[in-house]
Design goal:
The complex is a heterodimer of chains A (about 130) and B (about 280).
Chain A: E1 3-9, H1 12-28, H2 33-52, E2 57-66, E3 69-78, H3 86-89, H4 103-110, E4 113-119, E5 123-131
Chain B: H1 2-12, H2 14-28, H3 37-56, H4 68-84, H5 88-96, H6 99-109, H7 113-153, E1 158-161, E2 164-170, H8 175-192, E3 196-203, H9 209-224, E4 228-232, H10 236-245, E5 253-255, H11 258-268
Parallel strand pairs in B: 2-3, 3-4, 4-5
Antiparallel strand pairs in B: 1-2
Helix pairs in contact in B: 1-3, 1-7, 2-3, 2-6, 3-4, 4-7, 5-7, 6-7, 8-9
Classes of the chains: A alpha+beta (about 130), B alpha/beta (about 280).
Chain lengths: ~130, ~280
Amino acid sequence: MAKKEILPLKQETDIVLIRQRVRQSAEVAKLGLVSQTKIVTAASEIARNALIYGGGGECVIEDTARNGRSAVHLVITDQGKGIEDINKAMVDGYTSGNGLGLGLSGAKRLVDEFAIESAPGKGTRVELWKWR
Amino acid sequence: MPASVIAELLQQHERELLDEWVTAQRLAGIRTDLVDEETVRSNSQELLKLLTVAAAEGLDDLHSAHWTPVKGMLDRLSRSQSRQGFTSSETATFVFSLKEPLFARIQAQCANPVEVLWDASKLLDKLGLYCVESYMGSREAIIREQQESMLELSTPVVELWKGILAIPLIGSLDSNRTQIVMEALLEKIVQTESDLAIIDITGVPTVDTMVAQHLLKTVTAAKLMGAKCIISGIRPQIAATIVHLGVELGDVVTKASLADAFQMALKELNVRLVSATAR
């Protein structure tokens, strides 16, 4: 079952591909339509952040299980300049660019488990879980 | 001089080379579903003739004028093969399969085969790569054409009623497309003097913060021009996602379906539709 796929994240069209793959993965995990849309949207947000602020990276999609429930597990990494203050970045409406400032905090609310690691100059790693 | 040696070999053994070359191509696998052996043979013959002429003038610089006919022919061939559905290796194999028969000749006929072989190999490599390049070039041209036609396809602004526009969005909205959609809508608002525009997102699979931001900007821009926007086609899963994302749609009017939005727009214009037959 545990199928793992690594997708590149170098340009905007890669985000489209990642969304499609995450949707397939969510279907494999038999997530409901709302949950599918949620994980796809969260992936889209995080992938766009990694591309715009982190200069691109990669996305690992895994069909797996969590506590006996089928699940989608995503790890999106970039080697960009990292986030200085994660707490601040997680606040609704805060953005260092010109977006709405809801990507990170919104993505966290869309998934079942959310983990972010980042340090200035070290890039950013975001882990997303959505299970059945 | 390797150049003249190769040219001479090509000329003297044209028939044998052609036979062996076509055989080599057959062994490498001719796509019989796309091309018959007759065509392969005539293509090979044409290239051999052109090669003979060009090789006599010197092998080193493919950019010089006497190589133009050869390059022109390879260009044409690669382009048409790319459109017909050949793979790039199948296209390159056409040139590369000449190596075996040509090398065998050189080995048999030349006093110093190594030097000549090296030159012949360099030449065929360059020509093979040239094939791949023009194959790729034509593929890229096709992709560009398709991208452009998709950009156009994705932005039909339609007039539903005098004063009511609708724009059914389909597919994923990246910044490039959304920009075009927005401009098309604003232009049409001026053109048709419309007061109401319905943006239908039934065909948009994902609404993330960027898409939401683009939609909000479009609505605001339309408002500045005195037109009111209604966003329709918000499916349940999209609604749930937007709420969790925390996107505030503010005072943007939204409707579940295009029909609802149209009905509302008619009401705004004080238009009432009645059945033609009395009930």
